[in-house]
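Can you give me the bound-state structure? Components:
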Amino acid sequence: MSELVYRPASELVALIAKKEVSSVEVTKAFFDRSEKLNPVTNSYLHLNRELALAAANSADEALSRGEVSSPLHGVPIAVKDNLTTTDAPTTSGSKILEGWVPQYDATVVTKLRQGAMPILGKTNLDEFAMGSSTEYSAFGPSKNPWDLDRIPGGSGGGSSSAVSGFLAPVAIGSDTGGSIRFPAAVTGSVGAKPTYGAVSRYGLIALASSLDQIGPVANNVLDTALLQDVISGHDPMDSTSLPNSLGSMAQAVRQADPKGLRVGVVKQLSSDGFQPGVKELFDDTIAKLVAEGVEVVEVDCPSFEYAVAAYYLILPAEASSNLAKFDSVRFGLRVTPEGNPTIERVMAATREAGFGPEVKRRIILGTYALSSGYYDAYYGSAQKVRTLIQQDLNRAFEKVDVLLTPTAPTTAFKIGEKVNDPLAMYLNDIATIPANLAGIPGMSVPNGLAREDGLPSGVQILAPQMQDALMYRVGAIIEKLYLAQWGSPLLTKAPKLEAK
Amino acid sequence: MAKDNLLSYEAALEQFEVVIGLEVHVELNTKTKMFCGCANEFGSEPNTNVCPVCLGLPGSLPAVNKKAVESSMAIGLALGCKIAPTGRFARKNYFYPDLSKNFQTSQYDEPIAYDGEITIELDSGESFVVQIERAHMEEDAGKLTHVGGATGRIQGAEYSLVDYNRAGVPLVEIVTRPVFGAGDKAPELAAAYVRAIRDIVKSMDVSDAKMERGNVRCDANVSLRKKGAEKLGTRTETKNVNSLRSIENAVRYEIQRQAYILSQGGTITQETRHWHEDRGYTSAGRPKSDADDYRYFPEPDLVPVQPDIAWIESIRSALPENPAARRKRLQSAWGFSELEFRDVVNSDLLDQVEATVAAGASPQAARKWWTGELARVANASEIEISALQITPEQVAAIQKLIDAGDLTDRMAREVVAGVLAGEGEPAAVIEKRGLKVVTDEGALIAAIDEALAKQPDVLEKIREGKVQAAGAVIGAVMQAMKGQADAARVRELILERANS
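Here's the bound-state model for the whole set.
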């Protein structure tokens, strides 16, 4: 059954439940492919065949006792390497954590284990999730299965390339400013950032606490929804986690009816700065919805103009504090300098050797932004912009149910193209950042291949806080319209990966 | 050895006005730590009460201890503070190896309690109102032990050991506004203030309040200004003052040290200073300026504490009587002398005496038991008097038997010993040990006759007015009766005989 790896997770779970195939067989199929192709895509930093097969075996045994632990029981999964796992190293893409095996599992990892989802391995990311391409990973960039010379998006490029390259059926990502949605858009896959607090952050190595959110990555909307249903829910270990359930996303997907839907197009995210082919695809998506009778209006979000600037103050500020704990005292790398190794010198030498350039850049930026005398001008102003963006969105959501934007300004760029131009890199997130600043859910769904380069593009759906189900419903509507046009998922058009 | 020149205390006060400000840290006695479920326990093996949260491991998140919030509010209310409708946590960022996250989770511009005041009465009866600026919640750091090196300080140590058991223990920091006008009473006021805080938190049972264990710690700010001057002088902050006597001595020392410098035309360096109790001087710590930059910002991992009125009022209504007011009430009710009352207070026996009186003993008798025999027994067995296995009710019951003439003082002490030895209630001990006052006068008279026969000159001496001569006969009679006689009655009988 070599085609197993191309099946959606929703089919795999049904096959496993009917015992037409075992979880062990499915897991083996993904390992066989991953062991062959990971050297090509560099999706995984760590693969763990024995442990995953043991978990798959337990999943099969549970099924034979009639126990179904989750909507994805038996389906294997890849986990971004900034979630702690007790049975695998957790690096967050940094040398400073190389070799560290956490003493505890992230809440989401616990939910995957309890949901009988074997963990295939840990996926690559930009160091501490800082980046849009995985080029800032201390362990080399991941490759985009559509074009191996191009980036798979970031920071969650390991998960997006694993899923779009069929090295995993589904994966876990984390999204601070677009790290799930941008990789999804440039790899032709689906990724969702749930409402802030919908999924516990306990065990997610923090980048910016007020912006970080764990979410699902998959090849289609239903699989994404099923995975969000597995990982979401209140967690007493995370004070910012929502007290109430947001309902079943999978159920919302199954009600993909466009009737009565009102969609907003953000004025500030529909004109300048987008690659023409990306813009054309977005206009096409809107046209398709209009043809279905969906009401589309333009909405004004004037504060979006300042979103990237505000984001690059708030994020580094929180990150500079979150990353202070990497000091060599209790875990991870320790570099002892020559001469008189005082604690200050050991900390400095460790951080100098352990952190990459982008991490250092953001720590310095954040430290500066929080400094007394600059706090009000930088961090304080950025927080005000954040409030204004929330107000823009509140006003918009009075008029429409969801907002649509292109997920990213361009298709996947070439590895090396922007790595030395941080500002250009930061602008990739122009459309995704507002959702993190406002805490609202956002997802990216593929909407075709750009005319210029034949590479995938995505449309982003933004919904009001806690209306993740509505977001999934719209995602399913758009996916259905395109499937009708394409006849099969976009990823079936991707070039076949070959071992090198 | 102190290197500082000091101006005499009298001369210092003649020239300068003393301004003090006090920061008192109260360690709460909650079962668990401030932000995790680890035990809040003194004296455990190093690094046994630790978890990913208090070790600051990557990915871990804090969750607020509700009991600690309640205790903090109770302290605020007891000090007449207002409770903030929104209390926000903030991060205080600085690197130190005892601080596991390299930031302390504290409160900054939105403390839980603010704007209170407390009246402090000195021994002289003079009273001062001390304004409380704020009381805020924060977590303690770990404990460092510097090994090697001459000073036991981090400088020059060969290596340092870190015990994170204390990391994350809940603290409430109470900060006064500057206190003016105490004049030569400033040192005494400082100590009396800390004692008042200690008594209050102890009476509320929110802290073990043992200064020697660091449950209550004080940083004393001292500054001087020329008499009549408007502008406040430069202050120093003396740390490490962990007894009431140290506080008084350290403040006095700083007054004299600063006065000397200022009188010589010098300037005071704003710095922290360390108090050395053994040799009675302060030494310079690190320079501390207002430019000290902790880069405070709101803790994004915690939602604000927003107590509703009902919660606040339920805590307020459960507050115990103010310890100072209670002392006043009891002293007047019991009619003790100043000296007697202070003895009870200083021995920390108010509760026991009050309960013993409530159980029916006279105040004087209750006081004598607790400050006399019971204190002696506790002292001899080197345990806290509160750990003695005897209740105030039992003490009162024994006293009643004395009052009724059923026990002599000596027998009563034996009953106490029996109770302490676990032989049961006083009645059971009396029964078991056969302790019964001999009231058969015939037996007493026979014993007196026998004793007088051996000391024939006694009666003559008594008749001559040397009444104390009876003592020798009383002793002999008591010995013959094995102590089970009422010595007062024996004395009466001997005097009757002499005068008949």
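A couple of observations. Residues 244-263 of chain B form the longest helix (20 residues). The longest strand of chain B covers residues 127-139.
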